[in-house]
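Throughout our pipeline, every protein is held as a single compact record rather than as scattered files. The remainder of this section carries one protein's record, kept here as part of the documentation.

===
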Amino acid sequence: MELSVSQQSVGDYPVLAVRGEVDVYSAPALQEGLNTLLDSGAKAVIVDLTEVGFLDSTGLGVLVAARTSAVDAGGSLPIACQHERILKLFKITGLDAVFEIHPSVDAAVQSLANQNSAG
């Protein structure tokens, strides 16, 4: 299955919607999409992985690098994901403690809105 990466907005937040499989061959498209949003000055970019069925170490590396860039710029990179295989990958690598992971884009938006109103 090919990778599809598209940008949209939900509320005040940019969302990078990712569909398909993220592997060594398709990860550059994910990286380009993330870089475009982060380079535009977005503080928080939600990565929608709800329609991703496969994510390898290259894809994880892209996400970690993007999160580092976002945090260094004072932002965040929350992830929306409910696919058990992908969630397990985050858990066994310990990245579930690094990323803020939500079951849906709406849940990620709500969390960001709550953080912004509290801070």
Notes: The chain has one domain: 4-118. DSSP finds four helices and five strands in the chain. The first helix runs from residue 27 to 39.
